[in-house]
Amino acid sequence: MIETLTIHESIAKVVDLYGDVKTGNLAIATNYTWIKSQLDILAADASKNAAHCKENNVVAEKNYLTLVEKKAVLYGKTDKQKEALDAYSEQIIGLESKINSCRNEIGKRNAEIMQYQNERLKSKENLEKRKKDMWWSWVTPPTLIWKTTELIISAKQYDKILADLLNKTRQLEENIRYNIEKIASLKRSREETGAQSSELAMQMHLIEMQISEVINEINVATAVLGIWERLQRLYEIAVVSIENSFTVEKLRDCFEAVIELGKQLDVADETVVVGKTSIISGMLYRGNALYLGQVLKKGEYLASLNKRFVAVLKRDGTFAVANGEKEIWYTAVKGDKVVFGEDGLVKLDTWNTKRGGASILIMQDDGNLVTYNSAGQPLWATDTWTYATIDAGAYNIPLTKYSGTYKIMGQNNMCFDVFGGRISNAAILQLYPAHENDNQKFNIEPLSNGAHKITVVCGGKALDIRGGSKDCYADLIQYTPHNGPNQQFWIVPCKDDYVKIIPVHSGKPIDVAGGNFAKNAKLQQNDENGTQTQMFKLINA
Q: Using CA atoms, how far apart are residues 222 and 383, in angstroms rounded to an integer?
C-alpha cells in the first residue's frame, strides 16, 4: 500500500533526490532504476491524492447544494416570521388606537354625565320648591300643578339619560379591558415569534457560515487537485526521461521544475496558509468551525473566513489561537485531540469550555474563538476579539471615548426607543418622540479597542445587530450582553455635534428605515449614504 504524502512531503523527497544529483552523489544519482522507482511511487501517490481531491469536490458540491436548499427554506420561514411580527405590531398599534379613542369617548361621556347630573339636581331643587308652594297653598293653582308634573317628568328623563350614559361608559370601559387583554396576548405572541425569528436568524447565520466553509473547501480542493495533477505530470515526465536516455542534466531539469512548482505554493495539501504563517505550516485545514461530535487532531486547525486567525491543535498538543505568528491564547493542558462532545462541551484532556449545550465552535473574523448554542447565544469564548485590527474604512476613529448615560436623538425630537419598553431579548429599536422613561436612556461604556458598549437602562440589555448579520437592513435590537463585535459600536463625531454609530463587526452605520424621522420608524444598519438618517446626537440623560 502506497503511503499518502502531503504536497510538502512529496516535494521534500524530490528535494532530497535533487540534492543527491546536484552534489554529484553518483552512487545514487546514476542509479536510475532506484530513482525511477522513487518517482513512480511519487507519481502514483500524486494520482491517488488527485483522485481523493476529486471525490472531496463531489461531496462538497453536494453539501453546497443541500445547504443552499436549507437556506432557501429558512428564507421562506424568515419572511413569514417577519410578516407575522409586522402583523402583530400593526394589530397592537390598531388596538392601542382604539383604546385611546374609547378613553376620549369616555371623557366626553363623563362631561355629559356631569352636565345632566347638574341639570337633574336643579330640576329636583325646583321640584322640592314647587312641593312646598303646593303644601302652603289652600288652593293649588293649575299652573303650579302642571309645572310640578313637568319637573317630575324631566327628572325621570334625566335619570334615563344618565343611566344610558353610564351604561355606554361601562361598555367603553369593558371594551378597553378587552383590548388591553388582547394587546397583552398579541405581545406575548410577538415575543414568541421574535424569539423564533432570532433562532431562525442564527440558523441562517450558521448555514451561511457553512456555505462559506464549503465554498472554501471546494476552492481549496480545486487548487490542490491542480497541484497534484501538475506534480503527477512532472514525475511522469521525469520517469519517461530516465527510461529514454538517462542523463544527470535531464533529471536535474525535471527536479528543478518540480521544486519551482513547490516555491509557488500558497496551498499545501488540504491546507490553507493563513497569513503565510509557519505556525500552521504543513497542517491540515478543517474549515472555520467544529460541530457536535467532530474532532480536531494534532496538526489540524480552524481558520477564520477572513484568513487572519487560526485555532490550532499544535503538534506538541497545545490548543492555541494565533494571529499570524503571534499566539494570543492557549491552553496549559496538552492532549492528542480536541473533542466536541454531544454534551456541547469542547474538551482537550482535562481542559474544557465549562458551559455545555453548545452546537458550534467557530473561529470568528474578529479573532474570538466562541461556542454558541442553537439559539445563537454565546456560551464560552477566548475573549481574544480585542486583538483584531478592525478597519473602520474612511472613518476617522477619535481617541475621545464616551462614557455615561445618554439619550440618542435624531431630528424631529425623535429618540432611540426600545419598542413598548420591553426588556426581553430581540426587542427592536425604533424612533419615538422624546420622553423620560428608561427605555430611551442608554449607558455608554468605552472599550479597550476604542469602540463602545451600549446598554439600555431599562432591563440592562445591550444594543445588538440581529444574528450578528453583516447585511444591509439588519435590525438593531437589544440582547443579553456577550461582548461580541455585533454589540460593539464605533461612535464617530460628525459636524454640528452629531455622531455616527457604527457596529464594529459590519462597519455599516445605524440608519433610520425608510429614510424618514417618523414615529415608530425602525432602526437598522445600512451602507454609508451621507444623509441625516445616519447622524444622531448624544444628550446627557
A: 35
CATH number of the domain where residue 477 is located: 2.80.10.50
Strand 442-446 relative to strand 476-479, pairing: unpaired
- Beta-bridge mates of residue 536: 499
DSSP 396: -
Number of domains in the chain: 3
Residue 388 to residues 149, 391, 489, Cα–Cα distance (Å): 93, 9, 14
Question: At residue 356, does pLDDT exceed 60?
Answer: yes
Cα(94)–Cα(91) distance, integer angstroms: 5
Write the pLDDT tens digit of every residue in 224-248: 677 677 777 777 776 776 666 656 6
Q: Which residue has the cell 463602545?
A: 452
Last residue of a domain, one of 344, 366, 389: 389
- Report the share of the chain in percent with pLDDT over 90: 18
Angle between helices 32-136 and 142-245 (to 10 degrees): 180
- Does any domain span residue 466? yes
Q: In this structure, are 384 and 489 located in the same domain? A: no
Overall pTM surpassing 0.85 (yes/no): no
Please give the single-letter amino acid code of residue 17.
L
